Amino acid sequence: MAYFRSWARRQPAPATTGTRRVAYFHGCSTNYFEPGLGKKAVAVLAHNGCRVVLPRQGCCGLPLQSNGNFDAARSYVRRLVAGLAPYARQAYTIVATSTSCGLMLKREAREILGVSQQFLGFTDSGLPEGDPPPPLPEGCFALEKLGDAAQPLVQAVREFRPHVMLTYDENGGYPHPDHVMTHRVSVEAFDAAADPDRYPGSGELWQPLKLYYFVSFHKARFTALHEEMERRGLESPYAEWFARWDDEDRAAARPELEITTRVPCGDFFGVRDQALLAHATQIDPESSWFACPVEVQQAAWPTEDYHLARSVVDTEVPEDDLFAGVRERVSP
Question: How does residue 41 score in pLDDT terms, banded at 50, 70 and 90?
Fold first, then answer.
């Protein structure tokens, strides 16, 4: 019986006009014991318009971990992630057909590699719509007392000990109640984490060095995207946006922040969009968020932009690095 990868190397690339790119993580089970499953998976993906590639890959390390050989498992996981990571960075969707291997990559591999994610346990406030908008739901994040909402973040800052923090501005980027509350909580945590009189019992004191606000929604960026789309003969979705920008009341209520820091990120825009799409309950893949092609954004405005709100280290603006001034402070 031929192994799946041996079969795959002899196959021509499936003909498809689709634009979704898939990196197929088949796992050892499919490769050695169920090659027919891999063949069917490739056929189904191609039939549904996916461009399928087979990254360099090996064992996920699950058998080693199950038998307590954690050092060897860590080595296998690192090799596997090294093979898949270039495709993840190019916004390929990674699809697995071996359940145990897929879960190893999604869950146990995070612990083996020292990657952690922490949820603070608050309830989404939703975005109220209407004139006037309806009241926020009882118990939601935006209605929490500031001290109650900030305490878990203060504790997380003291435990994780970040040098740089990023958050929304006081208007939330756009006035989503949770964005506005996130701003308040983040500023409180930045100011309080090193204060011995605030939030006692929440960990060893720590002072973050820089606090940035996202500057994602500004007219210069969308003007550049609009003009580049028109130059390429594409229909721009931004005309309505400009009408809202020209509203004097809005401009007075939400003045644009100074951009102090522009970080070149164009190579990672595809990954950024995939991360946003993972928020599947709130993000429509057909929405205006994705109306501007990635290649247009890379050409017209290839940076992510920030406003340096607080700094306890010396730095000069404009910057192109969120850690400017930090490395000199913390390096031995």
Answer: very high
